Every structure is written in C-alpha cells, then in structure tokens.
C-alpha cells in the first residue's frame, strides 16, 4: 500500500518504531534534550514537570506531563524522530485523543523539536506518504486498525 502523489506528511524510516536490521539502527531522540524542553515549558506554563517516562518496548514514544495553571498536559515525544504531540491522557498507544498544542508548546520548537498539531495527527493515512512502510508495518497497521498519522507515530505494536 503505497500512497503516491500525497503531498501531506511524508513518513521517514523508523516512524512506526520498527526497523529492518539490514537498514541499520534507527536514530534516537535525545531524551535529555526532551527533558530540558519539558522543564523550560513548565516554567513558561508557570507549572512543573510531572512524571517523565522513558520509552519502554514496544512503545514508540516517551511520555511526560506538565502541570500548569490550566491543568495537566500529557506530552508525547517520538523515540526516533523529534516529534512532540499533546494528548488528553497518558496511554500506551494513540489513534486519537490528540490535542492542539498549548500556548507554551513553542518551547519545544525553540529546542529543535517539531510540534505536531492534533489536526495533523488526525490526518487519514490516505493523505500521508507511506511509501517507506514495509509489508510488516502495513500488517501491524491493518491488525491494529490504524487509520491516522497519529496512530502510526505513537503506537505500542509488538
């Protein structure tokens, strides 16, 4: 299933968290840079950083919370690409439930991360360039009923 001609988001190798050994290891997002950005964001939000949870197999992302004046925000950071997203609640995988970035999300962009909007993450896979996905990744997409970009990026497939 290759989506040729889709001008939206282009998935790079490792977007699902899977890789083929012959392609070599996937890049790793710098967890210390993510933590630093979290603390900077908490200062801007006039709040504090809650629990930071490093990615654990099979999850494709790290999670954290920032508790500010407006309440608690769940922050997701992809383990292999510098993508940051915001969600309603902490879970092991996401297909929906993504939020618009809070006003202080620019701190992550300033730190070199790409902040993804809830609208971007809700993009149907038919509007995403998925040409890099392997047959095995497509098998997981179908098995788990994934239909959106966010579901591909923030998953816990085994």
Q: How many whole angstroms does the radius of gyration measure?
A: 15 Å
Quickly give the structural class.
Answer: alpha+beta
Which bin fits the share of residues in helices?
10-25%
Strand content: 15-25%
What about the largest sheet?
6 strands, mixed
The strand count comes to: 6
SSE string: HEEEEEHEHHH
Terminal CA distance: 21 Å
* Continuous helix count: 5
Mean pLDDT over the full residue set: 91
Shape: globular
Tell me what you see in this structure:
The protein has 158 residues and is of the alpha+beta class. Helix content is 24%, strand content 20%. It is built from five helices and six strands, in the order αβββββαβααα. Strands 1, 2, 3, 4, 5 and 6 form a six-stranded mixed sheet that branches. The protein is globular, with a radius of gyration of 15 Å. 35% of the residues are buried.
List keywords for this structure.
158 residues, alpha+beta, six-stranded mixed β-sheet, 24% helix, 20% strand
How are the SSEs placed, and which strands pair?
Layout: H1 31-44, E1 48-53, E2 61-68, E3 71-78, E4 83-87, E5 98-99, H2 106-110, E6 114-115, H3 118-121, H4 135-144, H5 149-153
Parallel strand pairs: 4-6
Antiparallel strand pairs: 1-2, 2-3, 3-4, 4-5
């Amino acid at each position: 299933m290759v989506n040729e001609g889709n001008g939206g988001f282009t998935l790079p190798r490792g977007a699902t968290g899977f890789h083929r050994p012959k392609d070599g290891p996937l890049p790793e997002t710098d967890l210390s840079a993510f933590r630093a950005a979290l603390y900077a964001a908490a200062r801007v939000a006039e709040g504090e950083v809650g629990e930071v949870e490093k990615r654990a197999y099979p999850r494709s992302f790290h999670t954290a919370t920032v508790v500010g004046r407006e309440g608690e925000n769940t922050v997701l950071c992809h383990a292999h690409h510098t993508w940051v997203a915001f969600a309603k609640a902490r879970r092991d995988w996401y297909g929906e439930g993504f939020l618009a970035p809070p006003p202080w999300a620019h701190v992550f962009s300033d730190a070199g991360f790409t902040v993804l909007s809830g609208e971007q993450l809700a993009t149907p896979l038919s509007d995403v360039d998925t040409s890099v996905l392997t047959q095995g990744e497509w098998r997981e997409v179908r098995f788990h009923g994934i239909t959106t970009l966010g579901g591909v990026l923030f998953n816990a497939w085994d």
